[in-house]
Model the fold of this input.
Amino acid sequence: MTTTPNRSDKEALMPDYYIAEDGTIHDREAEHRSRTQHTAAPAVADTTAEETPEVSFARQFVYWLFALSASVFAAVCVFHEMQTAFTSPAHLDFLEDYVQQFVFEHAKALVIIITVFCIYLYGKTGAKKHRYNVLAYLYTVFICCFAPPAAVFVLMAAPILMALALAVLVLGIVGLVKMAFG
Done:
């Protein structure tokens, strides 16, 4: 004769197990250990999290002094070597010629401004991330080498880009007028 155990006998056989709502069997002790480990882990992680130390004002000052002087020096040197490319147009017929004359008259200042702006953007993001260390100085030198020629290229292309933008604007207006009046 087999007798079915009553509720207290089942609890005596499996005191640490229970059946969840989804039908799975769970162990109370294992879940308790798991919960205590998971709640303790973030506290340990918070204490071991590496905080970035504050960089001294002197280190930042030396970096910015170096970065700005190097960028201006590089921009002047590149402009001096490429000065023959900046010749003013002989006659002013179109808007493009006026833009070109303005760019060529102010080319040295524009090359310097674009280069310093590139250094500023890197200094506020990359150099700060590197905490103004030697790697930040190396990246600054690389930017100083590549930013002035890029600035010269942009300035050489500026009149053409302005003409293209004007042409697209005119064609867009003509297209809208044709669409409106059919």
